[in-house]
Protein backbone atom coordinates (compact mmCIF):
# COMPACT_ATOMS: atom_id res chain seq x y z
CA UNK A 1 0.00 0.00 0.00
CA UNK A 2 2.83 2.37 0.87
CA UNK A 3 4.62 1.50 -2.36
CA UNK A 4 1.46 2.15 -4.34
CA UNK A 5 1.01 5.59 -2.75
CA UNK A 6 4.61 6.53 -3.49
CA UNK A 7 4.21 5.35 -7.06
CA UNK A 8 1.16 7.57 -7.53
CA UNK A 9 3.06 10.51 -6.03
CA UNK A 10 6.00 10.06 -8.42
CA UNK A 11 3.63 9.68 -11.34
CA UNK A 12 1.83 12.91 -10.46
CA UNK A 13 5.13 14.78 -10.25
CA UNK A 14 6.23 13.48 -13.66
CA UNK A 15 2.93 14.33 -15.30
CA UNK A 16 2.87 17.81 -13.82
CA UNK A 17 6.45 18.39 -14.99
CA UNK A 18 5.62 17.19 -18.49
CA UNK A 19 2.39 19.09 -18.97
CA UNK A 20 2.60 21.97 -16.54
CA UNK A 21 3.46 25.31 -18.09
CA UNK A 22 5.55 27.58 -15.88
CA UNK A 23 5.35 31.33 -16.34
CA UNK A 24 8.02 32.77 -18.60
CA UNK A 25 11.23 33.71 -16.82
CA UNK A 26 12.43 37.27 -17.45
CA UNK A 27 16.04 37.87 -16.48
CA UNK A 28 16.75 41.31 -15.03
CA UNK A 29 18.81 43.75 -17.11
CA UNK A 30 18.40 46.73 -14.81
CA UNK A 31 15.72 48.19 -12.53
CA UNK A 32 13.60 49.06 -15.59
CA UNK A 33 13.96 46.13 -17.97
CA UNK A 34 14.36 42.38 -18.27
CA UNK A 35 14.91 39.83 -21.03
CA UNK A 36 12.81 36.71 -21.51
CA UNK A 37 14.80 33.50 -21.50
CA UNK A 38 12.60 31.69 -24.04
CA UNK A 39 12.63 34.08 -27.00
CA UNK A 40 15.04 36.88 -26.07
CA UNK A 41 12.31 39.53 -26.08
CA UNK A 42 12.86 42.56 -23.84
CA UNK A 43 10.34 44.29 -21.59
CA UNK A 44 11.34 47.91 -21.01
CA UNK A 45 9.35 49.95 -18.49
CA UNK A 46 11.49 53.08 -18.62
CA UNK A 47 9.20 54.97 -21.04
CA UNK A 48 6.48 54.77 -18.38
CA UNK A 49 8.50 56.49 -15.68
CA UNK A 50 8.43 60.20 -15.05
CA UNK A 51 11.87 61.73 -14.52
CA UNK A 52 10.85 65.16 -13.24
CA UNK A 53 10.51 64.13 -9.60
CA UNK A 54 6.80 63.35 -9.87
CA UNK A 55 5.00 59.99 -9.98
CA UNK A 56 3.31 58.36 -12.95
CA UNK A 57 0.24 57.54 -10.83
CA UNK A 58 -0.72 59.85 -7.97
CA UNK A 59 -3.14 59.25 -5.10
CA UNK A 60 -5.06 56.33 -6.61
CA UNK A 61 -7.59 54.86 -4.18
CA UNK A 62 -7.17 51.17 -3.26
CA UNK A 63 -9.40 48.56 -1.67
CA UNK A 64 -7.57 48.79 1.65
CA UNK A 65 -8.70 52.41 2.08
CA UNK A 66 -5.38 54.10 1.23
CA UNK A 67 -4.35 56.33 -1.67
CA UNK A 68 -1.22 55.18 -3.50
CA UNK A 69 1.28 56.96 -5.75
CA UNK A 70 3.65 54.94 -7.92
CA UNK A 71 6.47 55.57 -10.38
CA UNK A 72 8.46 52.68 -11.90
CA UNK A 73 12.21 52.85 -12.42
CA UNK A 74 12.82 56.43 -11.29
CA UNK A 75 12.49 57.65 -7.65
CA UNK A 76 10.07 60.49 -6.93
CA UNK A 77 9.20 62.80 -4.05
CA UNK A 78 5.75 63.50 -2.65
CA UNK A 79 5.71 65.83 0.31
CA UNK A 80 7.50 64.01 3.17
CA UNK A 81 7.86 60.79 1.13
CA UNK A 82 11.29 61.05 -0.53
CA UNK A 83 13.27 58.92 -3.03
CA UNK A 84 10.29 56.62 -3.34
CA UNK A 85 9.00 54.12 -5.81
CA UNK A 86 5.64 54.05 -4.03
CA UNK A 87 3.98 56.21 -1.37
CA UNK A 88 0.63 56.03 0.41
CA UNK A 89 -1.69 58.24 2.44
CA UNK A 90 -4.94 57.60 4.29
CA UNK A 91 -6.70 60.59 2.74
CA UNK A 92 -5.88 63.27 0.21
CA UNK A 93 -5.11 65.67 3.08
CA UNK A 94 -3.16 63.32 5.35
CA UNK A 95 0.59 62.81 5.63
CA UNK A 96 2.41 60.60 3.14
CA UNK A 97 4.48 57.54 4.08
CA UNK A 98 6.99 55.45 2.14
CA UNK A 99 5.86 52.04 0.87
CA UNK A 100 8.76 51.03 -1.40
CA UNK A 101 11.95 52.43 -2.91
CA UNK A 102 14.19 51.54 -5.88
CA UNK A 103 17.03 50.06 -3.84
CA UNK A 104 16.10 46.40 -4.26
CA UNK A 105 13.89 45.52 -7.23
CA UNK A 106 13.57 42.04 -8.74
CA UNK A 107 11.84 40.85 -11.90
CA UNK A 108 9.71 37.73 -11.74
CA UNK A 109 7.49 35.66 -14.04
CA UNK A 110 3.93 36.61 -14.81
CA UNK A 111 1.34 34.93 -17.00
CA UNK A 112 0.92 37.88 -19.33
CA UNK A 113 3.84 40.20 -18.72
CA UNK A 114 6.27 40.64 -15.84
CA UNK A 115 6.11 41.18 -12.11
CA UNK A 116 8.29 43.59 -10.16
CA UNK A 117 8.99 42.77 -6.52
CA UNK A 118 10.20 45.55 -4.25
CA UNK A 119 11.99 44.15 -1.23
CA UNK A 120 11.97 46.27 1.92
CA UNK A 121 15.18 47.91 3.08
CA UNK A 122 14.21 47.57 6.74
CA UNK A 123 11.15 46.21 8.51
CA UNK A 124 8.69 47.06 5.74
CA UNK A 125 6.55 44.74 3.65
CA UNK A 126 7.13 43.23 0.23
CA UNK A 127 5.48 45.09 -2.65
CA UNK A 128 4.55 43.31 -5.89
CA UNK A 129 3.49 45.14 -9.05
CA UNK A 130 2.27 42.94 -11.90
CA UNK A 131 2.68 44.53 -15.31
CA UNK A 132 0.09 43.08 -17.68
CA UNK A 133 0.49 43.22 -21.44
CA UNK A 134 -2.49 45.22 -22.72
CA UNK A 135 -2.48 47.19 -25.95
CA UNK A 136 -3.66 50.43 -24.41
CA UNK A 137 -2.29 53.83 -25.28
CA UNK A 138 -2.55 54.96 -21.66
CA UNK A 139 -1.30 52.82 -18.73
CA UNK A 140 -3.85 51.82 -16.10
CA UNK A 141 -2.95 51.42 -12.41
CA UNK A 142 -5.02 48.95 -10.39
CA UNK A 143 -4.17 49.16 -6.67
CA UNK A 144 -5.26 46.24 -4.52
CA UNK A 145 -3.34 47.55 -1.55
CA UNK A 146 -2.24 45.61 1.51
CA UNK A 147 -3.20 41.95 1.88
CA UNK A 148 -3.65 40.98 5.54
CA UNK A 149 -3.23 37.29 4.68
CA UNK A 150 0.07 37.44 2.79
CA UNK A 151 1.22 40.60 4.60
CA UNK A 152 2.34 42.23 1.39
CA UNK A 153 1.17 44.93 -1.03
CA UNK A 154 -0.22 43.94 -4.41
CA UNK A 155 -0.77 46.13 -7.47
CA UNK A 156 -1.29 45.77 -11.18
CA UNK A 157 -0.43 47.96 -14.15
CA UNK A 158 -1.96 47.40 -17.57
CA UNK A 159 0.32 48.73 -20.28
CA UNK A 160 1.65 47.93 -23.73
CA UNK A 161 5.18 48.27 -22.35
CA UNK A 162 4.70 44.90 -20.65
CA UNK A 163 4.44 43.28 -24.09
CA UNK A 164 7.45 41.77 -25.84
CA UNK A 165 9.72 44.47 -27.31
CA UNK A 166 6.81 46.96 -27.33
CA UNK A 167 8.77 49.80 -25.68
CA UNK A 168 12.27 48.56 -26.40
CA UNK A 169 14.67 49.92 -28.99
CA UNK A 170 17.73 47.82 -29.58
CA UNK A 171 20.95 49.79 -29.05
CA UNK A 172 23.07 50.50 -32.07
CA UNK A 173 25.75 47.92 -32.50
CA UNK A 174 29.29 49.17 -32.35
CA UNK A 175 31.16 49.38 -35.60
CA UNK A 176 32.83 51.63 -38.14
CA UNK A 177 30.57 53.89 -40.17
CA UNK A 178 30.73 54.15 -43.96
CA UNK A 179 32.35 57.57 -43.74
CA UNK A 180 35.06 56.24 -41.42
CA UNK A 181 35.77 53.37 -43.81
CA UNK A 182 36.12 55.79 -46.73
CA UNK A 183 38.51 58.01 -44.75
CA UNK A 184 40.63 55.00 -43.79
CA UNK A 185 40.82 53.91 -47.45
CA UNK A 186 41.70 57.47 -48.51
CA UNK A 187 44.60 57.83 -46.08
CA UNK A 188 45.87 54.32 -46.81
CA UNK A 189 45.93 55.11 -50.51
CA UNK A 190 47.84 58.35 -49.86
CA UNK A 191 50.34 56.47 -47.70
CA UNK A 192 50.87 53.80 -50.37
CA UNK A 193 51.15 56.46 -53.09
CA UNK A 194 53.86 58.37 -51.22
CA UNK A 195 55.71 55.28 -49.97
CA UNK A 196 55.81 53.40 -53.24
CA UNK A 197 56.60 56.55 -55.21
CA UNK A 198 59.46 57.50 -52.86
CA UNK A 199 60.93 53.99 -53.00
CA UNK A 200 60.71 54.01 -56.78
CA UNK A 201 62.45 57.41 -57.00
CA UNK A 202 65.18 56.31 -54.58
CA UNK A 203 65.84 53.01 -56.30
CA UNK A 204 66.05 54.55 -59.74
CA UNK A 205 68.48 57.15 -58.36
CA UNK A 206 66.90 60.01 -60.27
CA UNK A 207 66.37 62.27 -57.28
CA UNK A 208 67.25 62.88 -53.65
CA UNK A 209 65.68 64.55 -50.60
CA UNK A 210 62.05 65.60 -51.07
CA UNK A 211 62.41 65.14 -54.78
CA UNK A 212 62.09 61.38 -54.34
CA UNK A 213 58.37 61.93 -53.71
CA UNK A 214 56.21 61.03 -56.71
CA UNK A 215 55.23 63.91 -59.00
CA UNK A 216 57.28 66.31 -56.90
CA UNK A 217 57.16 69.18 -59.42
CA UNK A 218 53.37 68.98 -59.66
CA UNK A 219 52.76 69.05 -55.89
CA UNK A 220 55.21 71.94 -55.40
CA UNK A 221 53.35 74.00 -57.95
CA UNK A 222 49.89 72.84 -56.89
CA UNK A 223 49.25 75.66 -54.33
CA UNK A 224 50.09 78.26 -57.00
CA UNK A 225 47.73 76.59 -59.48
CA UNK A 226 44.93 76.66 -56.91
CA UNK A 227 45.59 80.33 -56.20
CA UNK A 228 45.53 81.23 -59.89
CA UNK A 229 42.31 79.32 -60.41
CA UNK A 230 40.59 81.09 -57.52
CA UNK A 231 41.73 84.51 -58.74
CA UNK A 232 40.46 83.76 -62.22
CA UNK A 233 37.06 82.67 -60.91
CA UNK A 234 36.72 85.75 -58.70
CA UNK A 235 37.72 88.19 -61.45
CA UNK A 236 35.37 86.60 -63.95
CA UNK A 237 32.49 86.74 -61.48
CA UNK A 238 32.69 90.25 -60.11
CA UNK A 239 35.71 92.29 -61.09
CA UNK A 240 36.93 92.07 -64.66
CA UNK A 241 34.09 91.19 -66.96
CA UNK A 242 36.44 91.58 -69.84
CA UNK A 243 38.72 88.77 -68.74
CA UNK A 244 37.89 85.79 -70.91
CA UNK A 245 41.18 83.90 -70.90
CA UNK A 246 42.95 82.16 -68.04
CA UNK A 247 46.33 83.14 -69.54
CA UNK A 248 45.63 86.82 -68.80
CA UNK A 249 45.41 86.26 -65.01
TrEMBL record:
Pfam families: ATG27. One of its GO terms (cellular component) is endosome membrane. Residues 30-165 form the MRH domain. The keyword NADP does not apply. The chain crosses the membrane at residues 181-199. GO terms for biological process: autophagy; protein transport. It is a single-pass type I membrane protein; Single-pass membrane protein. Keywords: Autophagy, Cytoplasmic vesicle, Disulfide bond, Golgi apparatus, Membrane, Mitochondrion, Protein transport, Receptor, Signal, Transmembrane, Transmembrane helix, Transport. It is found in: Cytoplasmic vesicle membrane; Golgi apparatus membrane; Mitochondrion membrane; Preautophagosomal structure membrane. The keyword Zinc does not apply. It comes from the Eukaryota. Coiled coil: none annotated. Its main location: membrane. Residues 1-20 form the signal peptide. Belongs to the ATG27 family. This is Autophagy-related protein 27.
Amino acid sequence: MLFKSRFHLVLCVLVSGAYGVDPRQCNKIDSCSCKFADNGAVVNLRPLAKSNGASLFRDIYAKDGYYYSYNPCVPFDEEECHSASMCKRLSTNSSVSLVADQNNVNFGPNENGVQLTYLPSGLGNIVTVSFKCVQNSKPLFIPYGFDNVTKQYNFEVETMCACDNACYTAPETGGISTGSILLIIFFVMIFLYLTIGAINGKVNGKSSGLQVLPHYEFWVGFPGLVKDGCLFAVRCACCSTGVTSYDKV
